[in-house]
Specification:
globular, about 15% strand, about 250 residues, alpha/beta, 4-stranded parallel sheet
């Protein structure tokens, strides 16, 4: 097991069904697996048994594997822990309690802050991998009651899309950048057309940051995502190791 020296971001990964040594770094701009996305090192650890289907659905048996994988990342030198599935926010409290470093499991942690940034009449669009699983339990974790959820949030997903289908395969099938960008941006446009009160967009899925620039261009709205959360959290650390951990 390799140990990363200096400040590094540790990312808890879902199973792919592909040998780790064959997984290539992404070249997609703003992907968490693209080495150029961050100005600091990233290290990855697969969570045993954590597939897209059971993590998105909220399988409680995954909590222990997430904790164990997070501890392995800390042992390897991770200064901050995140994950590559926004629905792993269900394990936020447990992993934060077990890891002696800051933990930001999901971009959904932005929700309470964004809510305070906007006027009371404004709505927030949450773009998710699967809207059928982004329900009351998720909002309760974020401290959002039912009345606030109904008044302030619009949730939309990409169920049935190419990326949605490919991610459920075992092994996972790669989806092209263009396909992901088009499906996610189209979802944002549909939500905005149905709810003009939407004033910003939050991308739940850790793969969606690759579509952030397209959504900004098409909607002219602020877009929040996991990459931004990870950069902000890393920038909050004291820098003693020579890495530039500030936002880029």
């Amino acid at each position: 097991m390799s140990v990363c020296k200096g400040r590094s971001l540790g990312i808890l990964e879902l199973e792919r069904g592909i040998p780790p040594e064959t997984v290539q770094p992404s070249q997609s701009p703003n992907s968490i697996r693209n080495p150029s996305t961050f100005s600091f090192p990233t290290i990855f650890e697969t969570v045993s048994g954590a597939w897209v289907d059971n993590v998105v659905a909220g399988d409680p048996r995954m909590e222990k594997p997430y904790i164990e994988a997070a501890r392995r990342l800390v042992e390897r030198g991770a200064s901050v822990i995140s994950s590559n599935c926004g629905f792993s926010v269900r394990h936020q409290a447990a992993v934060a309690a077990a890891a002696n470093v800051p933990v930001v499991m999901s971009s959904l942690l932005f929700v309470p802050s964004i809510l305070l940034q906007l006027p009371a009449a404004a709505k927030i669009a949450i773009l998710t991998y699967d809207s059928t699983h982004c329900g009351d339990d998720i909002f309760e974790i974020l401290g959002i009651d039912g009345a606030t959820r109904e008044a302030r949030f619009v949730v939309g997903g990409i169920e049935g899309s190419e990326f949605w289908r490919n991610s459920l395969e075992k092994p996972v099938v790669r989806t092209s950048l263009g396909s992901i960008q088009e499906d996610v941006a189209a979802c944002a446009e549909r939500l905005r057309a149905a709810s003009p009160e939407i004033k910003c967009v939050l991308l739940e899925c850790a793969e969606f940051p690759v579509a952030a620039s397209v959504i900004r261009e098409r909607t002219a709205l602020p877009v929040y995502d996991l990459v931004g959360l990870c950069k902000t959290t890393m920038a909050a650390l004291a820098n003693r190791d020579g890495f530039d951990v500030g936002p880029h």
